[in-house]
Write a structure and sequence with these properties.
Layout lengths: L1 H13 L1 H16 L4 E2 L2 E2 L7 E3 L1 H27 L11 H7 L11 E8 L5 E7 L6 H11 L3 H10 L1 E2 L5 H16 L9 E5 L7 H13 L3 E5 L5 E3 L2 E4 L2 E2 L2 E4 L3 H6 L5 H9 L3 E3 L5 H4 L2 H6 L2 H4 L4 H10 L3 E3 L6 H6 L4 E5 L9 E2 L5 H14 L1 E5 L4 E9 L2 E16 L2 E10 L11 E3 L1 E4 L2
Parallel strand pairs: 3-22, 7-8, 7-12, 12-13
Antiparallel strand pairs: 1-2, 4-5, 4-19, 6-22, 9-10, 10-11, 14-17, 15-16, 15-17, 18-19, 19-20, 20-21
Length: 441
């Protein structure tokens, strides 16, 4: 990845006028595409993140290793109630987590984000297993940017592969639904799929693509807000039609905040007669307290020495933010820490100490103590170059990068890359999305 990146910058420097004209064309194409975030054109960088087959082999090995930890920790949570206080879920959520799905996959969909370094090492940032999104950022960007003159040059030299993120998900839904049926689920002649999320929280372009692919593959499908779902004798319905599969994009936090308004859905989850992908137990891993649990003594005693070595090497040290004996260290050594709210998403409320004065940082820490935060080791930046355009002209700049792997049914199915100048990389922090592709040789 890092060697190829240097080649791309060299090409741009030798073809300045061509590249600048090309960027103008691409910017207009992206503006007319479905590459949108919160109703606005997606900020993007000219060059994709170009990974090699060696990078992909590292990512596939990473997938296998982290799922060993993920599945074991979920197993520990379910079989050893004495450790559940580390997660501190309320009893209503705990009851939903305990429901045994009829397919034997704890985390059917996720996007696992990490910092990837030139020596092939990595450090996890967070594991998103609940309402996983961004397929609609990656796919339309790649549709356009793979045809830039810069990438045409790279394609002629190396050959370029890309990932498909929609049909590959429906493939896995096929497998999960069959497991559900094999374990006592009730079949329909034409299965009815509901893509479920609150309309104001959803990514409509992305949902529409999934809806069309489900229909193309022989399913009936609708996009439905959770309060519109009804329940009868444990089965879930929409508009009086029995639902066979719910593709749950509704994040657990939003569901629990509206618990009393969603009792038909809650009762259906507890009855376990509808195939809900994914189950609520994915919250064990999705919560920001998960990394804290992996570093907590009561949880760690269930892991082998080899597993603990992996955790210590790849999972940043994390603790609940409290006014304890470590508080002054957090203030003095602010550049070593980042704080995150326990259960928000899209990088809301995430702050890195190195971006604030000591006074500002202390104020943020004191606020975080009372509003439910974790404090985490700040991971070293992963830096790569790209073109920064201003007034139609570019300069080569260094960007901080974060890599995410789309995980479908515990298999790596795609890559999502973001970049930015700030320590916290996200759309909320002036971040950019990148197309992600793989060179063939």
């Amino acid at each position: 990845m890092f060697v190829i990146n240097k080649e791309m910058m060299d090409y741009a420097e030798k073809n300045v006028e061509k590249v600048e004209l090309d960027y103008k064309r691409l910017y207009e194409e992206v503006g007319q595409s479905n590459a949108v975030y919160k109703g606005k054109q997606l900020p993007f960088l000219y060059y994709p993140a170009v990974y090699s087959e060696k990078d992909v082999q590292i990512f596939q090995a990473l997938t296998e290793e982290i799922f060993k930890i993920v599945n074991k920790s979920i197993d520990v949570y379910l079989k050893h109630p004495e450790v559940r206080h580390v997660w501190d879920f309320d009893k209503k959520l705990e009851a939903l987590i305990e429901v045994e799905p009829r397919f034997k996959v704890n985390v059917p969909m996720g996007r696992f984000d990490f910092f990837y370094y030139p020596d092939g090492s990595y450090k996890f940032c967070e594991l998103n297993t609940d309402g996983t999104s961004a397929m609609n950022e990656e796919t339309p960007l790649t549709d356009i940017l793979i045809h830039s003159i810069g990438m045409n040059h790279m394609g002629e030299k190396y050959g370029i592969n890309r990932y498909e993120l929609y049909h590959s998900w429906v493939d896995e839904v096929d497998h999960l639904y069959q497991m559900f049926l094999d374990n006592g689920g009730e079949a329909s002649e034409i299965p009815y799929v509901v893509i479920m999320d609150y309309y104001d929280k959803s990514t409509p372009h992305e949902f529409k693509v999934f809806e069309s692919v489900f229909k193309e593959r022989g399913y009936k499908c609708d996009i439905v807000s959770p309060e519109k779902i009804t329940e009868k004798e444990g089965y879930l319905y929409y508009n009086h039609e029995k639902i066979d599969i719910i593709y749950r994009r509704l994040v657990t936090k939003d569901m629990m905040e509206h618990y009393d308004e969603l009792l038909p859905l809650i009762n259906g989850i507890l009855a376990n007669k509808t195939c809900i992908i994914g189950s609520i137990r994915s919250q064990i891993v999705h919560t920001k307290k998960y990394f804290e649990a992996l570093h907590h003594g009561e949880v760690r005693k269930f892991f082998s020495k080899e597993e603990l070595n992996y955790i210590d090497q790849y999972i940043p040290f994390t603790k609940a933010l409290k006014k304890d004996q470590n508080f002054e260290k957090y203030v003095r050594q602010k550049d070593r820490y980042i704080i995150k709210p326990i259960d928000y998403y899209a990088s809301k409320g995430v702050y890195a100490g190195r971006e604030f004065s000591e006074e500002q940082w202390t104020e943020l820490l004191n606020e975080g103590i009372h509003t439910g935060y974790i404090i985490q080791e700040f991971c070293e930046k992963s830096v790569n170059q790209n073109l920064y355009f201003e007034d139609g002209h570019f300069e080569i700049r260094e960007f901080n990068h974060i890599t995410g792997l789309f995980m479908y049914n515990e298999k790596m199915k795609g890559i999502f890359t973001r970049a930015g100048f700030n320590a916290v990389i996200s759309d909320l922090n002036d971040g950019y999305s990148l197309s992600s592709v793989v060179v063939k040789k």
